[in-house]
């Protein structure tokens, strides 16, 4: 390419690099021809790395070494960040896919207005919200680090900082206002008991909770009077009247098949007999007991998540500083 330029310049009566009076001019053309980060030149006129550095020094007033570690932008940290954020992107896509698939199976996507029809909590929202947050964070951090985009990296650190602040605030409020949190949990469980038969995902979530913590209702089995199928009123013609879901039943190790009718008429029996057939403790007290028994594990998980978030924020800010420092040196 250089020889072709020389031939054209000579044929038009122009000057060639040999006729330039200023070596700095030749160095500057070499810099433009080779590129700002290349140390090897295809030109036959000894456009060396030193010349490129002299040209750059004459252009910006300071010489920049090509061995400057700042130019590498912490490659190990970038790789670590990219791999972890890439995992967040794929997990986010997976969670979003599961949530959308669940809504499609329930016909929500064909009738968007049915989202607000459910009286209780739809567990699909967990997948959609968590998946959406993971995808946004992973995409912004990964693309920002790969493309050295300071806007995306700043967005990543600010978004992650907001999540960390909300988690910290929720933890402090839960510790200070224990009674209020207990009342809200009681209200939340009872509200979902009313909608137990309205959504299969909510039903599975309640059954899993009651089986895992060996509980029934928010504070006892009588909370199931709030459900139109399980209440004990005389007007209730349901076969499940004065009963509880099968997840409230005590498990018999000898049974291989779950008896889904084990809770029928369970609350019509005396309380002493009820304790043999079903769990009589509420899920709120059982959850408190579980939290106290596993406080160290739960605290360790939250501290680990917080440290990962702080590490991500600091690493993103460090990358932003390095990128801006390198750009300022040009």
UniProtKB/TrEMBL annotation:
Among the Pfam families in the record, one is Tetraspanin
Listed GO CC annotations = plasma membrane
Glycoprotein among the record's keywords? yes
Family per similarity comment? Belongs to the tetraspanin (TM4SF) family.
Identify the main location.
membrane
Q: Does the keyword Transmembrane helix apply?
A: yes
Name used for this protein in its record: Tetraspanin 5
The entry's localization annotation reads: Cell membrane
Protein keywords: Cell membrane, Disulfide bond, Glycoprotein, Membrane, Transmembrane, Transmembrane helix
Organism of origin: Bos taurus (Bovine)
**Entry membrane topology:** Multi-pass membrane protein
């Amino acid at each position: 390419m250089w020889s072709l330029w020389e031939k054209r310049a000579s044929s038009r009566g122009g000057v060639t690099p040999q006729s330039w009076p200023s070596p700095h001019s030749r160095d500057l053309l070499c810099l433009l021809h080779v590129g700002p980060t290349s140390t090897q030149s295809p030109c036959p006129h000894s456009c060396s790395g030193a010349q490129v550095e002299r040209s750059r020094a004459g252009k910006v007033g300071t010489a920049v070494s090509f061995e400057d570690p700042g130019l590498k932008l912490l490659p190990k940290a970038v790789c670590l960040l990219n791999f972890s954020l890439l995992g967040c992107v794929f997990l986010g896509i997976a969670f979003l896919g599961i949530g959308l698939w669940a809504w499609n199976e329930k016909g929500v996507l064909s009738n968007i207005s049915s989202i607000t029809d459910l009286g209780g909590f739809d567990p699909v929202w967990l997948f959609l919200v968590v998946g959406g947050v993971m995808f946004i964070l992973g995409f912004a951090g990964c693309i920002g680090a790969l493309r050295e985009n300071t806007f995306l990296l700043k967005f990543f650190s600010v978004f992650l900082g907001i999540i960390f602040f909300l988690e910290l605030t929720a933890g402090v409020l839960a510790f200070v206002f224990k009674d209020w949190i207990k009342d809200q949990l009681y209200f939340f469980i009872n509200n979902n008991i009313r909608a137990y038969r309205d959504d299969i995902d909510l039903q599975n979530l309640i059954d899993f909770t009651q089986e895992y913590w060996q509980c029934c209702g928010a504070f006892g089995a009588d909370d199931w009077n709030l459900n139109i199928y399980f209440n004990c009123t005389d007007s209730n013609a349901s076969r499940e009247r004065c009963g509880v879901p099968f997840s409230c039943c005590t498990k018999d190790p000898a049974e291989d098949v779950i008896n889904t009718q084990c809770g029928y008429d369970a609350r019509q029996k005396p309380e002493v007999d009820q304790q043999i057939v079903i769990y009589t403790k509420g899920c709120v007290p059982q959850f408190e007991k579980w939290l106290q028994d596993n406080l160290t594990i739960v605290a360790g998980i939250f501290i680990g998540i917080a440290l990962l978030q702080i590490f991500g924020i600091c690493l993103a800010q460090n990358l932003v500083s390095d990128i801006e420092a390198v750009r300022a040196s040009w």
